[in-house]
Amino acid sequence: MGERFELQTADAAGRIGELTVPRAGVTVETPTLLPVINPHLDTIAPRRLADEFGAEALITNAYIFHGSEDYRERAIDEGLHDLLDFPGAIMTDSGSFQLAEYGKIDVTTEEILQFQFDIGSDIATPVDIPTEPGVSRETAEAELETTQERLELAASIDTGDMLVSAPVQGSTHSDLRERAGAHAAETGLDVFPIGAVVPLLNEYRYADVVDAVAAAKRGLGPAAPVHLFGAGHPMMFALAAALGCDLFDSAAYAIYARDDRYLTVRGTRHLDDLDHLPCSCPICVDHGAAGLRDLPDDRRETALAAHNLHVSFAEIRRIKAAIREGSLLELVDERARSHPAMLDGYRALLAHADQLEREDPSSKGTFFVTSAESARRPEVVRHHDRLDRLSVPDALFLTEGPDPPSDEYDDVWRVVPPFGPVPSALSRTYPLTAEVPTRPDRAALEAAARGVSRLVDAHPETSFGLAHRGWPPAIIESLPDELALFDGES
Ligand SMILES: [Zn+2]
C-alpha cells in the first residue's frame, strides 16, 4: 500500500487519486467506476466499455470462470485480457457473493487466488465472509475472525505483481468495522473493498451505509484506496466519494436495463413512465423515449444499459470536477434532495464532520451556503474550533449589521450565519469568503449563536456586545448571560 496509491486533490474526505495497477501496466485515476462483466451475458462488450465509455477498469467474477466448462480452460489459456478483449485493469471477485447468496462455495482462498493469478487478473480478491447487516455481535465477530484469517493467508502468498484486495467486514457494528479496517490496512494488501453494504443499499439505508464507511475509514486511514463494493447507482456516488470512497462497481447498469429501468442521478425511472428523457447521452438524443420503447427487446436492453453507463460515468466526471473545484459537498447537498433516505445519508455524513474535517483542505473555492445542512459542514465546525484560539481586545462588538451603540468597544467584528463571528483579518480567507443567503434559516442562526458562545466562553476577560437581526428567543436564551444584546430589528 502507499506507493501504489497516490492522493492528489482532496475535498471533504473525497479525493482524486492515482492507483497504479502494475500487472495491467496502467494507472487508474480515481474515483472511478468498474462496470461488472458477466461472461455469460454480453450486454456491452468490454472493448466498447473502454473505447466508448472510457472505462479504465472492470470487474468480473473469477468464481464464474472457475465453475464454467465453457470458460475455465479458455481463461487459463488466453488470459482474461484477451478473452474479454479489454485493455484496462481487470479486477476479479472470488465467489464471496455466491457464498452470501447460496451459503457455500467449493474453493479455498489459496485455490481461488491461484486461479485468479492464472487467468491474468490484475486485482484479485480472497474469499471473505460478507456479514449481513443487523446480525448479532457474536456472529459478526466470529465471521470477521474468519475473514481476517483469510486476509492474513492471502497476504502471505506470493502473488507477483497482481494486487490483492482486503475486504472490510463487520456488519452494522461500527467498532467492528473500524477494527476490521485497521486490520485490513495492517495486512499490507492493496485495495480495500467495504463489503456487505448491498443489503443496506437495497433498503435505502444510506445513513447506515455512511456510518459503516466512516467507521471502516477510521480504521483504514486516508492512504488506503477504498472500494464501496456493490454501490452501482449514480445517485449515491457523490455521497460515497465525499466519505473517501475511490472505486465503485456497477452491475446495476445491466441489471436495471433488463427491466426497462432508466438510471438518473436523482433515482430510477421506468421507461414506460418517461415521455421526455432528462439526458443528453447519444442513446437518449438518438432515440427519444418513444424510440427507445419501440426497439426490439434485446436492442432496447443494450441501449438502456448504454444510457445507464453514460449517466454513471458522467456522474463520476462531475464528482472529479467538483473535487478539483472544492464544491463536492455542494454536489452532495444537491443529490441529497432526490430522496429522503439520501437526505438521511447526507445528514449522517455531516454527523461525521469532525472526521471529514481532518482530510478537508483548509482552502478551496467559494463555499456556497445553500441549505440548512450547510450549517453543519466541516468548514463551520473548523471555524468554531478556531474561535477559541483567536486573540480579542478588551471590549469587542459583534454585529449582523448595526453599528455599536457607543464608543466603548475597541473593535467590531461581523457576525455571519452560519459561521458566527468573523474577525476582519480573516474575512477574506476561506471559508469566510462564503456566499450566504441574505435570509438565513434557523439552522444558520443556531450555528452563528454557537460560534458567538464559543468566542465569549473562550475569552471571559473580554466584554462583548452583540447586535443581531431579530434572532428567535430560544436562540437568544442559548447565548451567554454576560453578553450585552442589541436587537437590530426593533
Ligand atoms: Zn441517456
Could you explain how this protein is built, in words?
The protein is α/β, with parallel strands linked by helices and 490 residues long. It folds into two domains: 5-357, TIM Barrel; 372-487, no CATH class. It is built from 20 helices and 18 strands. The strands form five sheets. A six-stranded parallel β-sheet has the order 6-5-4-11-10-9. The longest helix is centred in the middle third of the chain and has 29 residues, at 297-325. The structure holds zinc ion.
**CATH fold descriptor of the largest domain:** TIM Barrel
Sheet with the most strands? 6 strands, parallel
Second rung of CATH, namely the architecture of the largest domain: Alpha-Beta Barrel
The chain-level mean pLDDT equals: 95
| Strand proportion | 15-25%
Report the bound ligands by name, code or SMILES. Answer: zinc ion
Number of strands: 18
Rg over CA atoms, rounded to whole Å, is 26 Å
Compute the number of structural domains: 2
The helix content is: 40-55%
Please write the CATH class name of the largest domain.
Answer: Alpha Beta
- Please give the order of strands in the largest beta sheet: 6-5-4-11-10-9
- Given helix and strand content, the structural type is alpha/beta
For the record, give the distance between the C-alpha atoms at the N and C termini, rounded to a whole number: 62 Å
Question: What overall geometry do the principal axes of the alpha carbons give?
Answer: elongated
Q: Which consecutive residue ranges, at least 5 long each, have pLDDT under 50?
A: none
Number of distinct helices = 20
CATH superfamily of the largest domain: Queuine tRNA-ribosyltransferase-like
